[in-house]
Each structure stands twice: as structure tokens, then as C-alpha cells.
Design goal:
The protein is of the alpha+beta class. It has 2 domains: 2-38; 44-127. 51% of the residues lie in helices and 19% in strands. α1 (44-73) packs antiparallel against α2.
Length: 128
């Protein structure tokens, strides 16, 4: 025997979902099986497609940020020409050290966002 009940579930304050409960009552009364079905037609395939699209967008954003940090890291390439050493005590010493520090920082961020992009690509391909 199957009983059917339709309820309105509210997960958070903004989102309300209409859910159809299918309750299977066997002849024994010590247990029952409940199946939840969304009444609005949203199913696992729709959810997977949306997740794949979302991860694909995240990957694009991470790639864009990685490229931006790569460009920032190489913007002052011509200042210390040919690996010129830092001139200790010279008026350009602080600027030289700052440029090198910023370059290292930007390269680290570039690599970090590139790895995030690859991770999101893997997640996207999993959900497709």
C-alpha cells in the first residue's frame, strides 16, 4: 500500500520547495520506506548540469585571475636589467627589493589560481 502526501518544505528563509512524499507501507507495521520526489520536476540530472556550469564558470574566473597575476608579476621585468644585483645603500635599493617581493608574491598567486582553475575543471568534468 502506498500513501501519497504533498508538503511544502522550506530549507532557508528564501527558498520553498514543493515535495511529494511517497510512503510505502508494507503489511508489517514495524517499518516503512519513504521516497522523496520534488514536485517541481527538478531532478539529479538538472542539479548535476547546474553544478557543471557553475564549476566551469569558476574555472574561467580562476584562469582570468591567474593571467592577471602573471601580467602583474612581469610588469617590471625591465627594471633590474639582466639580473642586476641590489645596490645596498643606493636610493633605488628599497624600490628594487619591493619589485622583487611583489613579483614573487604575484607569481605565487598566479600558480595558486592556476591550480584552482585545474581543480574546477576536474570538478566540472566530473559533474558533466
Amino acid at each position: 500500500m502506498i500513501k501519497e502526501k504533498q508538503l511544502l518544505l522550506q530549507q532557508n528563509t528564501e527558498k520553498k520547495t514543493n515535495v511529494l512524499f511517497l510512503i510505502l507501507l508494507p503489511k508489517r507495521t514495524d517499518f516503512s520506506t519513504i521516497q522523496f520526489v520534488r514536485a517541481d520536476g527538478f531532478n539529479v540530472q538538472e542539479r548535476a548540469k547546474l553544478k557543471a556550469e557553475r564549476y566551469s564558470a569558476y574555472s574561467g574566473n580562476a584562469t582570468k585571475k591567474s593571467d592577471e597575476f602573471h601580467n602583474k608579476a612581469h610588469k617590471d621585468d625591465n627594471f633590474p636589467s639582466l639580473g642586476e644585483p641590489i645596490k645596498v645603500g643606493h636610493h633605488s635599493e628599497s624600490r628594487h627589493r619591493k619589485i622583487i617581493e611583489q613579483s614573487y608574491s604575484n607569481v605565487d598567486k598566479c600558480v595558486e589560481y592556476d591550480e584552482k582553475s585545474k581543480e574546477y575543471d576536474n570538478k566540472s568534468s566530473y559533474w558533466e
